[in-house]
Design a protein that fits this description.
Blueprint lengths: L1 E7 L4 H19 L7 H20 L7 E10 L2 E7 L3 E6 L12 E4 L10 H14 L21 H5 L4 H10 L4 H4 L4 H4 L4 H15 L6 H23 L1 H16 L6 H8 L7 H11 L1 H6 L5 H19 L21 E2 L15 E6 L4 E8 L8 H10 L4 H19 L11 E8 L1 H5 L7 E2 L5 E2 L7 E9 L24 H20 L6 H16 L12 E6 L7 H7 L11 E2 L4 E6 L2
Antiparallel strand pairs: 1-2, 2-3, 2-6, 3-7, 4-5, 4-8, 8-9, 10-11, 12-13, 12-15, 14-15
Helix pairs in contact: 1-2, 8-9, 9-10, 10-14, 11-14, 12-14, 15-16, 18-19
């Protein structure tokens, strides 16, 4: 199981919550099955796990944080890809050729569907229907650069628009409720009459004039007319209840969609942290009859009132504790679907949880690479992905690092140090389905994958001869562990990312050397160059050991380099290079000599 989470609102709180708990929601469902689930059953289990995880996040202290989430679940020759949010998924396959080829791998975006999955196009259609129902901003369609917010546009945002007609249409487009769509201030809404509502509609029609042919003109005008009709009906039925609803709506606007506990308690007339029983009792006393009466004129208005009241009760009743909340300027989110983000799901479900899903059946004797990329890597082209996957066949970390560093390098050229940039992240998994691995007679035979890469034998050897290049780095937290085999300590400012970047460059030098010249001398050239680079760059004492700068012969579990090291070392074929790996000692690349 591979999971990639992409934090929103400049915090990792939601991403960390989901990353640490997702397996506890999915694995029990999988293990409870006595038989192998069908594709549609597998998708249903994943959807339920995502839904339950989201419910848990929405009740946690990180409820206002959020993240995108993408899953790769490998079951035999099936791979389920599920995606909530703006994480991109692609599948890479080697060129169709009988012999190993240097041609670029083929790239196919994974947008869901298939026999049992849900395609992106269907999800986007459902999103639009949901936003239409939930009084969402009219100028949001999920495109890059567009943002969703729970609150109406502020006066400052509107005054920044010089054209009165555009300002009026923006006010309506960004209105979070019917009173804001009519252009009322909080004071005007709480003293409104049917006559003032009619005048507000007429003033808007006069201001925007005849249609300019844009879709936003028609939808905004329709929203104003519908708001006028609904508010006028509510005022005619119960003006006091309508004014109470307006007060609740503007309270949410003034607080940016997230009610502080103190204000919620003031609305109910209770002490902060009063508990649900006390809070609900106050709702029954103060609001039940008044707000229920509005349903006769506007069911939508009554539903809105009870939705807001639910958030008021939750905020006022919960124990007095500091919840994480985004700064007011960071509450807009450029996503149509995500985990968490309670203020964008309650009382209005502006952000959805629709899952784009697909089950891929990997054919016999074939290789695929599946890659997930965060929103911060949206500028990465398919050609760049193909280049990285082709160059670093079978090395998912190296392929991801190449793509990530290319993005960061391009940003350094385009942005100043003060500009805010999105974090980048990628995850890749290579999947080989090769019958030869199972049926091999000679355990020491080098096996070939569909794209020509060497695979380890079916039975791992008892011992191997290995060399490595170690680049030490400072730990993320705490003091660096003791390392008596270190040739030199890590520089004080060298991070793991710095070490990985350095090793990626060395790996690409080695790959270039290996691929040049006649195939017969490839391993010898590679071993010689590896030793040369180890002597120059490695922080391990083994760099000065003999002509090949190696660790000598090691047995499984006895290398004293750590389990991550051993696991990688015994998977490498003779003459091969490992992916970039991380251990307690630092960051490594390995080369198997024998």
């Amino acid at each position: 199981m591979f999971l990639l989470v992409d934090g929103l609102r400049e915090t990792s709180a939601g991403a960390a919550f989901c990353a640490q708990r997702f397996h506890t929601f999915l694995l029990p469902r999988l293990s409870s099955r006595q038989d192998e689930p069908e594709d549609f059953e597998l998708i249903d289990m994943v959807n339920q796990a995502i839904e339950d995880l989201d419910k848990s996040l929405l009740e946690s202290n990180a409820r206002y944080a959020g993240c995108g989430l993408a899953l790769l679940l490998v079951l035999g020759q099936r791979v389920l890809v599920a995606n909530v949010g703006n994480i991109r998924a692609v599948m890479c396959t080697p060129p169709k050729a009988e012999k190993p080829s240097k041609d670029m791998w083929n790239i196919r975006p994974l947008v869901g569907g298939g026999r049992s999955g849900r395609p992106l196009a269907e999800v986007q259609r459902l999103e639009r229907l949901r936003r239409l129902k939930e009084y969402a901003p009219l100028d949001f369609d999920g495109k890059v650069g567009e943002t969703l917010s729970a609150a109406s546009a502020t006066d400052a945002e509107l005054q920044a628009i010089s054209d009165p007609q555009k300002r009026a249409m923006q006010r309506v487009s960004r209105a979070a409720h019917q009173f804001a769509a009519l252009g009322f201030s909080a004071t005007e809404a709480m003293t409104a009459t049917p006559a003032s509502v009619q005048k507000a509609v007429e003033d808007y029609e006069k201001l925007v004039g005849t249609s300019d042919g844009s879709p936003i003109y028609t939808t905004a005008l329709g929203r104003v007319k519908a708001a006028g009709k609904a508010v006028e009906a509510m005022l005619s039925l119960d003006s006091f209840g309508t004014h109470q609803l307006a007060e609740l709506c503007y309270a949410m606007d003034e607080e940016g969609g997230i009610l502080p506990q103190k204000r919620a308690a003031t609305i109910l007339g209770v002490e902060p942290g009063c508990g649900e029983a006390v809070a609900h009792a106050q709702v029954e006393t103060r609001y039940r009859a008044v707000l229920s009466n509005l349903a006769g004129a506007s069911p939508e208005g009554a539903d809105r009132a009870w939705g807001i009241m639910g958030e008021v009760v939750d905020s006022a009743a919960r124990p007095v504790a500091q919840l994480w909340a985004p700064a007011p300027e960071n509450r807009g989110v450029s996503a149509a679907r995500a985990m968490g983000l309670r203020d964008l799901k309650r009382p209005r479900k502006l952000i959805g949880l629709e899952v784009v899903s697909e089950v891929i059946h990997v054919e016999d004797n074939s290789t695929v690479c599946l890659m997930l990329l965060t929103e911060g890597m949206r500028e990465v082209s398919e050609a760049q992905i193909a280049e990285a996957v082709t160059l670093h066949k079978g090395k998912p970390k190296a392929a991801c690092l190449r793509i990530g560093h290319s993005v960061l390098e391009s940003r350094k050229k385009e942005t100043s140090s003060s500009d805010q940039v999105n974090a980048v992240g990628a995850l890749a998994a290579y999947i080989d389905v090769n019958d030869d691995i199972v049926t091999a007679v000679n355990p020491e035979k080098k096996l070939k994958t569909a794209d020509g890469r060497c695979m380890p034998s079916a039975k791992p050897p008892s011992r191997i001869r290995i060399a490595h290049i170690l680049v030490k780095c400072q730990p993320a937290s705490g003091p660096a562990p003791s390392d008596p085999q270190a040739r030199r300590p890590a520089p004080a400012d060298r991070t793991q990312a710095d070490a990985e970047a350095q090793l990626l460059k060395l790996m690409e030098v080695l790959l270039d050397v290996h691929r040049k010249g006649p195939e017969a001398g490839a391993q010898k050239r590679l071993s010689a160059k590896f030793a040369e680079l180890a002597r120059e760059h490695s922080d391990c004492k083994s760099a000065t050991s003999g002509s090949l700068s190696d660790l000598g012969w090691i047995s499984q579990g006895q290398s004293q380099q750590g389990k991550e090291f051993d696991a990688a070392a015994f998977e490498i074929p003779v003459g091969g290079l490992s992916d970039i790996i991380v251990t307690q000692r630092g960051v490594h690349i390995l080369h198997r000599l024998a």
